[in-house]
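Homework help thread (please don't just give me the answer)

Our assignment gives two proteins as sequence + structure token strings and asks us to describe the second one. The first is just a warm-up. Here they are:
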Amino acid sequence: MDLAVTTLVVSPFQQKCRLIVDRASGEAVVVDPGDDAPRIMKAIRASGAKVKALLATHGHLDHTGAVAPLRDALHVPFGLHGADRPILALMTEHGEVFGMDGLRVPTIDLDLAEVDTIPFGSGVIRVVKTPGHTPGGCTFLFGETGRMGLFGDSLFHLSVGRTDLGGDPVVYAKTIREVILPMPDDTAVHSGHGPSSTMAVERRDNPFLNGELDMGCPDLPM
């Protein structure tokens, strides 16, 4: 699968929205559209691709804030794990607190709790459940070998997501141990904030993965 990736940094939280295009078919998905719908639409038009779905790794407003207007404009389904519905429902209220006024809570068309793969181009997007940062956190793996990962806030370069905004450190530790750590070394780690990395680097140097620190610290990126 030959993919083109456009990254747009959006929202006051400097969150990374990504437009993923399968070059062979011209199909695309938008992952974590957190804010600035007009700029995302401009990137979609520039790509010439046909967006098939809007996907979110989790329900926090900086990953879902632009879903409603994009869904209206593109007439495509929105996919989110249903366990994050309570977080999504607070979007408007949280937006007013953080200076993102006028946000609308979108309808979830595809509950990611119910699927393990999403058809995309000639292949699939693997939907890997990575709860902990939020109850319904997911990681999306692209490509025939699943080596390009969009982790949202489930894994950062040398860090992990906080757990005091609807998360659970016990669940998160289990996710890291049983789901994230076994991923192959050459899996590309594209996070919701900050630089990209690989599983080899994170397994070796990330203190939350190599055992130097536990999951009890909430003072981490969003």
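The one we have to describe:
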Amino acid sequence: MSEQDALDGRVALVTGATAGIGRATALALASAGATVVLTARREGRLDEVAAAIEGAGGTALPIACDVTDLDRVRALVATTLERFGRIDILVNNAGIMSLGPLSEARVDDWARMVAVNVNGVLHLVGAVLPEMIERGAGHVINVGSVAGRRPFPGGTVYAATKFALRALSWGMHLELGAAHGIRVTDIQPGYVATELLDSDPETKAAWDISWADRRTLQPEDVARAILFAATSPDHVSVSEILVRPTDQPT
């Protein structure tokens, strides 16, 4: 089987699919033959990604959804199952990062990160598991972070959400792998050139300065790691992939 048809017949659901890692992952999965359901909050940009996939000969269905809204997540999954009958791959990519010292006590920002980065993942997992368990197969790919291995000053709460995702991924493997044939992968990127910091221009400018002479990861680099896990044989569960820029000093 060639790389171009390695996922023929599979249906993938990708959250946060309008930009960065999510967009690159959707394109990569589609290029391998998967039908890709794209979801994010920005409907216009979802249509752009879907058009890019279909223009390359793939199949895509854009559905706007906020992962923090459980009812909308359930409706998203129900629509996907009604249209395609299955969900083989779930890529939990939607996430936000708000940086600042704990001393500022930005509780609203902390709660929002937990709502998206942790609760949003739980909403999707809870919605897709019944169909995967009934079929005895499936693959959940969680996009974590190197921050899920070590916190950093200013990013303590963000790191805490990624630590939670790492624990969830491993626990899911233990509960769902041998018992139900469901594979789980935690992808842990280092610094990636994405829009993650665009909502905080001051922090973004500081990061850009600190990385001015260093090579960052590109979204396509992470998408390749996701594609590797997704196209591995069904008896192979790639549990974790840590992928860092060569130039990342920490």
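TA reply:
I won't write it for you, but here's a hint about the kind of observation we're looking for: The beta strands are 11-15, 35-40, 59-64, 89-92, 138-143, 182-189, 240-243.
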